[in-house]
Write a structure and sequence with these properties.
Blueprint (H helix, E strand, L loop, with lengths): L10 H9 L2 H5 L1 H5 L3 H9 L6 H11 L3 H8 L8 H8 L1
Length: 89
């Protein structure tokens, strides 16, 4: 699966913003059970997302979880090997 090597930190944030309706985007923090600030930080730095947030976000975005993890490197800096395997298998 090709990895996207774009280093623009706004790329995933923009993807989510463009995918969700304005109403859904504005309530995303509630759907993820996070503060607005933490939601924004995680969208701007998707490599720091934890397993639960990745699973919730894939469902909200209606996007294949494995593709989402690989394309945007979700959780790459925080997931353990065990958690990563649980996500993609």
């Amino acid at each position: 699966m090709p990895r996207n090597t774009d280093n623009d930190t706004q790329r995933f944030y923009q993807y989510v913003l463009n995918t969700l309706s304005a109403a859904d985007f504005n309530t995303l923090h509630d759907q993820l059970s996070l503060s607005k600030r933490m939601t924004t930080i995680r969208l701007q730095k998707p490599n720091l997302m934890d397993k639960n947030m990745i699973q919730k976000l894939a469902k909200i975005l209606n996007y294949d979880l494995v593709k989402l993890v690989h394309e945007y490197e979700l959780g790459y800096d925080i997931l353990t090997v065990r958690e990563y395997n649980q996500l993609v298998n």
